[in-house]
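User: I'm putting together a teaching handout on how multi-component assemblies are represented. Below are the sequence lines for each component of a complex, exactly as they appear in our records. Could you produce the 3D structure of the whole assembly as C-alpha cells, so the students can see both representations side by side? Please keep the chain order the same as the input.
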Amino acid sequence: MTMMKTLMIATTTALMATSAMAADIFVVGGKPDDPFWSRVKMGAEDAGKVAEAQGGSVTWLGPQNYDNLGPDAAELIRQAIDQGADAIVGPNWVPEAMDSAFEAVVAAGIPLVIYNAGGIEAADRLGALNYVGAVDYKSGYAGGEYLAKAGHTNGACVNTLPGAANIEAFCSGFNDGLAENGGTGSVLQLPATAFGDSTAVAQAVRAHLLQNPDITAMFAIGDQDSNATISGIQQAGKTGSVHVCGMNFNDSILANIKAGTQACAIDQQGYQQGFFAVSILNNHVMYGTTIPTREILTGPGVIDASNVDLVIAGVEAGAR
Amino acid sequence: MSSQNGNGSKGISLGALARRPETGSLIGFIVVYIFFAVLGGPVFLGLPGWSSWLNIAAEVGIIALPVGLLMIAGEFDISVGSIVPAASMMTAMLGGHYDAPAIVAILAGLGVGLTIGLVNGLLVTRTTIPSLIVTIGVMFAVMGLTLGFAVLVKGSTSVSYVPDPLTKSLMGQFVKGFSVSIFWWLGLVAVFFYALHVSPWGNWIFAIGGDKESARNAGIPTSQMTIALFMASGFCAALVGVLQVMTYQQAQVAGGQAFIFNSIMCVVIGGVLLTGGAGSIIGILLGTMTFAVVNQGIFFAGLDPNIQFIITGALLLAAVLSNDRFRAMATSAAAKK
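Assistant: Of course. Below is the structure of the complete assembly, with chains in the same order as your input.
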C-alpha cells in the first residue's frame, strides 16, 4: 500500500517534471526525401535523442515540393508555433516570404535558431539566438576560387532554384571567387520545374556549353545537379575540358571525384547543422545556456582528389 | 518525319489534309521549330541541337504515349510521376546495393510499374472514384513507400549503380549525343501506333472514351482494357526510370514529378481530346516534339527560361482551340457530302 502510494507520487512527480521541463523542438527544413536534407534531419534527430531522454521531442516539418518554397516554409513555421513548440529551428530561404513568420516566433517568446540559410545577419535581424550553417556565399566562393586557381577561369553557375536566397548566394560567391582570381562568371538560369529532373538539367547544361564554347568551369548547387551537369558535359563532348565543382556530396559524387570527372565538392556538413541547432535549443530550453560564439560555421569544406579517400572512410564509418 | 507515313497512305487532297486532326499539331511544331531556329542559330539547327531536344522528347514521349491512350479512353494517370523514381530506385537498389544481375534489376524495376498500374486499374474499375483522384492517391502512397524503402534498406535517399557495359550500351548510352532512349521511344511509337490504329484494341479504346456504357453493352471488355492501359502507363513510366538509372548511374527517391504535367501537355498539344474519344499517335508524337523543342530551344536561344512556361501555356491553349476548330471543320465537311 505504501509502496503503491510512493510509486504514484513518484510517477506524478515525474510526469510533472517532464511537462514542465521537456523541450518540444520543431525543425523546419527541406523535403525529407531530398538527399542533403535527409542528412540534416538525421543530425537533428540524433541531437533529439537527448531531448527525448529528457521527455522532449523533435518534429521535422518539410514541404511537399519546392514549387512555392518561401510561402510554404513560412506556413510550416506558423504551424510549429500553433503546435506549441518550445523552440524552433528554421532556414531563412526566402527572407521576403519568411521573415514575418520568424518574427511571429520571436514575438511569441519561442527561442529560435536560424540554420542552413540566411547567415548571422538574418539571426540578428530576426532576434534569433544563433545561426548554424555554412555561409552560402563563402561556399560558392570556395568553388570559384578552386577552379580559377586550377586555371579554369570562365565559369557558369547552374541555378535550378532561381529566387532562393541561398542558391543566389552560391552563384554570386562562385562568380566572385572566379573574378577575384582572374576569371569571369555567369549564371545559367533554369526553370524551377527542372529541379530534381536530371535529364532537364543535363540537356540545359549541354545546350549552354554548345552555345558558349569558352566556358571551362561549372558550379552545381547540389549533388543530383552535379551528376546531371557532368552528364551534360559528357554529352557536349567536353569531358576533360570543362571542370565541375558542386555543393554537397554522396557516394556517386565521391566516385566522380575519385574518377576525375568532378574537380571538387563543397561540403556544408548538413548533419552538423541539424545536430547543433537542435542541441543549442534543447540546452537553452532545459538549462538556459547560450553559445556566446555567434555564427556557428559548418562549412565550406573542399573535397577533392587529395582528401577524397578520407571522406569515403568517413562515409563508411557513418560520420558523413 | 514519321507523320508522312501516317498521312501518305490516304489519298492526298489539301482539304482532307487540313481536316486531319494532326494538322494543327504539325503546324504548331513547324512554327515553334522555326521560331527557335531563328533565335538559336546553327548550333540548334545542327545535330547537337536535334539530339538535345530529342533526348528530352524521348523520356517524356515514352510516358506521353500510354498517358495519351488513357486520355483517349477517358482516364488520367497522375501516378506516373512517382513510378519513375520508384522503378529507378528498385533497379538501382537490386543492381547496385545487392549486386543482382542487370536483367533481374531491370525486370524488377519494370515489375514495379506494372504492379502500380494494376493497382490503379483495379481501383478505377472496381470503384466509382475518378481516375484523377485514384492516381493522385496512389502517387502519394508510392512516393512514401519509395522513400521509406530507400531509407530502410540503404539509409540514404540516393543509390548509385554502375551497370555492366552491355546494359549501359543498350539503355544508358549516347551515340553522337543522341541518347539510346530515343530508339526505345521510337520503338514504342510503332507498338502504340499498331495498338491504336491497326489492331481491334484501338477501336475499343476510342469506344470506351466515347461512351463507356455503350462500349460495355456492345461487348467490349472495358474493365480489362482499362486495366491493361493503366499497366501500360505504369510500364512505360518504369521504363523511363530504368533508362535514367542506366544513364545517370544513380537513383533518387525524388524527381519525376515534372513528367506528370509534361506528359499531359504533350498529349493535349498533340490533339488528344481531354474528355476522351479522340486522338492519334502521330498527334502525340508531334505534341511531344513540339514540347521538347520549346523546352530546349530556350537554352539555345539564350532566353529567360521562365519564358518557356509562357510559351508552353500559350501552346496548350492554342492546341485546344485549334483542335476544336479542326474537329468542327471535319464534322461540317462530312455532313455536306
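A couple of points students might notice: The two ends of chain B are 32 Å apart (CA to CA). The interface with chain A takes residues 40, 43, 48-49, 51-53, 55-56, 59, 143, 146-147, 150-151, 156-160, 174, 177, 244, 247-250, 252-258, 295-296, 299-300, 302, 304-306, 308-309 of chain B (CB under 8 Å).
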